[in-house]
Amino acid sequence: xxxxxxxxxxxxxxxxxxxxxxxxxxxxxxxxxxxxxxxxxxxxxxxxxxxxxxxxxxxxxxxxxxxxxxxxxxxxxxxxxxxxxxxxxxxxxxxxxxxxxxxxxxxxxxxxxxxxxxxxxxxxxxxxxxxxxxxxxxxxxxxxxxxxxxxxxxxxxxxxxxxxxxxxxxxxxxxxxxxxxxxxxxxxxxxxxxxxxxxxxxxxxxxxxxxxxxxxxxxxx
Length: 221
Prior knowledge:
The protein contains eight helices and five strands; from the N terminus they run αβββααβαβαααα. By secondary structure, the chain is an alpha/beta fold. A five-stranded mixed beta sheet has the order 3-2-1-4-5, with helices on both faces. Helix 4 links the parallel strand 4 and strand 5.
């Protein structure tokens, strides 16, 4: 696809389709600790290059066979991994459905590959990649190591790195009682990412003025 044929969305992120992800887990080790929840939110872009949340998908996950569950982790997030009321599904089932939504969004936006957006993205990427490997899924739509980390973006744009405080600085409602639910945190991270990208857009930061164009415009005025 040539530059002229690319969609505005594809041009904005160099052919990447950002998808916001959050996970809730039973520890910090992606290889050994259980993945308990995962949620994803896709994004859409209007004709002015402004982003907004689009589709969302969420799953409670059954701990994989032999998974470690740290007591302190489930006390923190309040998840009972073995409660039948969770309606949990195997990792592979959840990932296949999320990847299906991801690929459709990527195709509709004219992008070449998905890229994860997450708060402390290395953590969520580690658990997503480990679950993909365990599930023997050969082709993930997500780039294996590139991510857009809203922790860093928020530190730059808002002077905050904690999700709740960054949302507060961006005047995004945040309910601490709903925090540490994968779906809620994903929705708020999506709002935060859109706020930062749209703020940059409103300041004239994209598309970038090509080198020399500004000087030429000044000389001709």
